[in-house]
Amino acid sequence: MWQVLACGAVVFPGLFFAFRKILPAVFKHWTDADVVLVSERLVSSIHAVMATTAGVIIVSSCRGNIIYDRHWLTTYFVIWYGVPYMTYDIFAMYLSHYYRYHVKGHEDYKQHSLRTVNSFVRREFLLVLHHIALLTILLPITLFFRKDQGDFFIGCLFLTELSTPFVSLGKILIQLSLQDCWLHKANGGMVLVTFFMCRIALFPFMYWMYGRHYGIPLYSVPFHLPLSTNLGNSCILAPQLYWFVLLCRKGYRLYQRSRGQPSPPPADASKED
User: Fold this and answer.
1) Worst-scoring range by mean pLDDT, 89-103, 160-174, 191-205, 240-254?
2) Average pLDDT, the chain
């Protein structure tokens, strides 16, 4: 009974529903789009904290032998929380997209339809593809193709979520019209640091750890791994590099604004970044 209640398929939609009920009572002037956006971000942050905590536990427990050391949390978290969250988040992102245009009175967004779903997929194609790839690649690898090896590296992948609470906080601060306060600027720096360390530098680190385990130099590691492994890592890393460039551009724009050089961007644009 408690396992069912603790399952991510109940926890994440339940939290999302609860935030959608609570936030309008606190922020009475918020539109449906505002409530859904902040609710989605709060749930994302909660999942990110859970995933990062699981990653720290797994990595610290399996660092003795990074290939064969096991931790029960690796498979458990993917099945009970990782997969349900990724499935839920696609739906939550769609709702955020829908209400963003619904409150603006767009003709196609008077009600849910295949057209609104198609528009969401086209506009958020990379994010949707990222979620589907994790569902169709990470889950089978974690459950069936690892031969009970590599819990350490799965734990490292959980650590990629460390930047998510900072990204979410930035969006929430903008929603609260606090984009010019010191907290937003400090948070922007944390976004860049955590994103680079845990979503980009993490991959060379994993290759280095693999090379250290087998006594081979870093540059030789890709040639000792199956092609499918290198391709999989490349597919995960590529969108991270793209998003990091976008974050750097946004950070540069904010820096220019603080110096009073260009005119500030439109409010809608800043919310969608």
Assistant:
1) 240-254
2) 89
| Nearest-10 crossing angle of helices 227-258, 125-133 | 140
Nearest to 118 by CA among 136, 99, 102, 97: 97
Q: How far is CA 165 from CA 42, 141, 171, in A?
A: 8, 26, 10
Is the predicted pLDDT of residue 33 greater than 50, yes or no? Answer: yes
Between 165 and 270, name the one with better pLDDT: 165
CB atoms inside a 10 Å sphere around CB 267: 11
Confidence category of residue 246, pLDDT binned at 50, 70, 90:
very high
State how far the Cα of 53 lies from the Cα of 7, in Å rounded to an integer.
17
Amino acid at the residue 251: G
Tell me how far apart the 2 most distant CA atoms of the chain are, in Å: 62
Count how many Cα atoms sit within 13 Å of the Cα of residue 142 in the half-sphere of its side chain: 26
**pLDDT tens digits along 215-238:** 999 999 999 999 988 988 898 899
Stated pTM of the model: 0.89
**Does residue 70 contact residue 61 with C-beta atoms inside 8 Å?**
no
| Three-class secondary structure assignment of the chain | CHHHHHCHHHHHHHHHHHHHHHHHHHCCCCCHHHHHHHHHHHHHHHHHHHHHHHHHHHHHHCCCCCCCCCCCHHHHHHHHHHHHHHHHHHHHHHHHHHHHHHCCCCHHHCCCCHHHHHHHHHHCHHHHHHHHHHHHHHHHHHHHHCCCCCHHHHHHHHHHHHHHHHHHHHHHHHHCCCCCCHHHHHHHHHHHHHHHHHHCCHHHHHHHHHHHHHCCCHHHHHHHCCHHHHHHHHHHHHHHHHHHHHHHHHHHHHHHHHCCCCCCCCHHHHHHC
